[in-house]
């Protein structure tokens, strides 16, 4: 069947979907694209609002009516697209139906999920079916986890040797130095986090089925840092483990490279940094309350019914203001360690201590929503333009496994992302 559209943005009237439409104006001008959702009036309103803000006429953008609870409408939608850009979360509840429809209609799919249970379940259940149909299902194509996954690939390409371990350090700040009040997360992002914590115990069983064999153990072992620690490389900031999906996504890509490309997998840990030890302690305190409540049904109801109260205003149904988004900046530092030498086989062990270090950095403005949607749309464009450089048979992938050999990093840099080498040290 001939596809009517290159890209369809599904869930375009939601908070993230609206940003995707906004970014589509600058990224998809050479492509045939449409918006989809269950409410025609809301979709028309989004097109009108985005068109006025960008001084462009969008009333001619086609609208497709599709409902997440109507499988036929999903198939009718996916049948018209070469790539579905899925903005309907939490994906734990609303993702699988779209993935299934995409595979049935031979349609590629990208989303911005940061939910390991969903992503790994999709790989477990649908990887073989996606390969049979020759389609790409790629999750984590936004803030979770394009910077971490593609940033790790960037570091490996710049290292010129053998990378043993990578530690990532995430930092947020306002580019004008002004601390703004109000939300920094939309409710949908918060809701995904609540259910992710609530069902974290599912991951063990999923991974045992998905990855029945362990990756080789390499020396020296990358150890966890203390609960709170300072890292001089990033300005002596206070750091703690980052609870997001970055490590899960990166390690899935590393496993793919090991199994399919005979490449030694790295060890990886992810951290987030703060200005003061009090900020870290506050986050840990909140995390204890959040994690405890998320385990129980009544606790989840409290969190979801009163997001502002339990997050001290950080999450709301309105989400962050456009001004707050535009002035937010993300920097992610990558501390890589390994050897300047290479070995013949990826499972070989070095008998000498690591003798090379590298520090790289990925940075971007408006990471949570604007830059997230840029990365999401460019991921869809890579499938359209450079599928010859992607795994040849299709399947369910994390971003780096799908896009390692494409020009995605260059395209990201063209629209505001920065990938750079900070320093290299050799003994």
TrEMBL record:
<dbReference type="InterPro" id="IPR005097">
    <property type="entry name" value="Sacchrp_dh_NADP-bd"/>
</dbReference>
<dbReference type="InterPro" id="IPR051276">
    <property type="entry name" value="Saccharopine_DH-like_oxidrdct"/>
</dbReference>
<dbReference type="GO" id="GO:0005811">
    <property type="term" value="C:lipid droplet"/>
</dbReference>
<keyword id="KW-0812">Transmembrane</keyword>
<dbReference type="Pfam" id="PF03435">
    <property type="entry name" value="Sacchrp_dh_NADP"/>
</dbReference>
<protein>
    <recommendedName>
        <fullName>Saccharopine dehydrogenase NADP binding domain-containing protein</fullName>
    </recommendedName>
</protein>
<comment type="similarity">
    <text>Belongs to the saccharopine dehydrogenase family.</text>
</comment>
<feature type="transmembrane region" description="Helical">
    <location>
        <begin position="270"/>
        <end position="294"/>
    </location>
</feature>
<feature type="domain" description="Saccharopine dehydrogenase NADP binding">
    <location>
        <begin position="7"/>
        <end position="138"/>
    </location>
</feature>
<dbReference type="GO" id="GO:0005886">
    <property type="term" value="C:plasma membrane"/>
</dbReference>
<dbReference type="GO" id="GO:0005739">
    <property type="term" value="C:mitochondrion"/>
</dbReference>
<keyword id="KW-0472">Membrane</keyword>
<dbReference type="InterPro" id="IPR036291">
    <property type="entry name" value="NAD(P)-bd_dom_sf"/>
</dbReference>
<keyword id="KW-1133">Transmembrane helix</keyword>
<dbReference type="GO" id="GO:0009247">
    <property type="term" value="P:glycolipid biosynthetic process"/>
</dbReference>
């Amino acid at each position: 069947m001939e596809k009517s559209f290159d890209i369809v943005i599904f869930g375009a009237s939601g908070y993230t979907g609206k940003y995707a439409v906004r970014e589509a104006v600058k990224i998809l001008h050479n492509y045939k694209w449409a918006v989809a959702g269950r409410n025609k009036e809301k979709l028309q309103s989004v097109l009108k609002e985005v068109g006025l803000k960008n001084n462009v006429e969008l009333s001619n953008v086609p609208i497709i009516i599709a409902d997440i609870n109507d499988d036929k409408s999903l198939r009718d939608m996916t049948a018209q697209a070469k790539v579905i850009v899925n903005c309907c979360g939490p994906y734990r509840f609303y993702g699988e139906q779209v993935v299934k429809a995409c595979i049935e209609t031979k349609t590629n799919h990208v989303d911005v999920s940061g939910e390991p249970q969903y992503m790994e379940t999709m790989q477990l259940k649908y990887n073989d079916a996606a390969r049979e149909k020759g389609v790409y299902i790629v999750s984590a194509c936004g803030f979770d986890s394009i910077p971490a996954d593609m940033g790790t690939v960037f570091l490996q390409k710049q290292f010129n040797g053998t990378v043993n371990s990578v530690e990532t350090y995430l930092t947020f700040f306002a580019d004008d130095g002004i601390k703004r009040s109000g939300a920094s997360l939309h409710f949908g992002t918060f809701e995904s986090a609540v259910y992710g914590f609530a069902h974290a115990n599912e991951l063990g069983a999923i991974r045992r089925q998905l990855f029945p064999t362990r990756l080789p153990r390499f020396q020296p072992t990358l150890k966890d840092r203390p609960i709170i620690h300072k890292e001089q490389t990033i300005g002596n900031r206070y750091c703690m483990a980052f609870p997001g999906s970055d490590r899960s996504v990166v390690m899935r890509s590393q496993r793919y490279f090991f199994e399919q490309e005979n490449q030694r997998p790295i060890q990886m840990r992810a951290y987030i940094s703060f200005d003061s030890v009090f900020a870290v302690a506050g986050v840990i305190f909140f995390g204890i309350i959040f994690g405890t409540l998320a385990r129980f049904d009544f606790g989840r109801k409290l969190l979801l019914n009163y997001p502002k109260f339990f997050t001290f205003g950080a999450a709301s149904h309105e989400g962050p203001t456009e001004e707050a988004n535009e002035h937010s900046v993300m920097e992610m530092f990558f501390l890589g360690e390994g050897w300047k030498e290479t070995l013949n086989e990826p499972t070989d062990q070095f008998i000498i201590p690591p003798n090379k270090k590298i520090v790289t950095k990925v940075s971007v403005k408006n990471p949570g929503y604007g830059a997230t949607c840029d990365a999401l749309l460019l991921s869809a464009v890579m499938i359209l333009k450079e599928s010859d450089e992607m795994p040849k048979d299709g399947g369910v992938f994390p971003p780096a496994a799908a896009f390692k050999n494409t020009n995605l990093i260059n395209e990201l840099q063209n629209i505001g992302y920065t990938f750079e080498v900070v320093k290299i040290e050799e003994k």
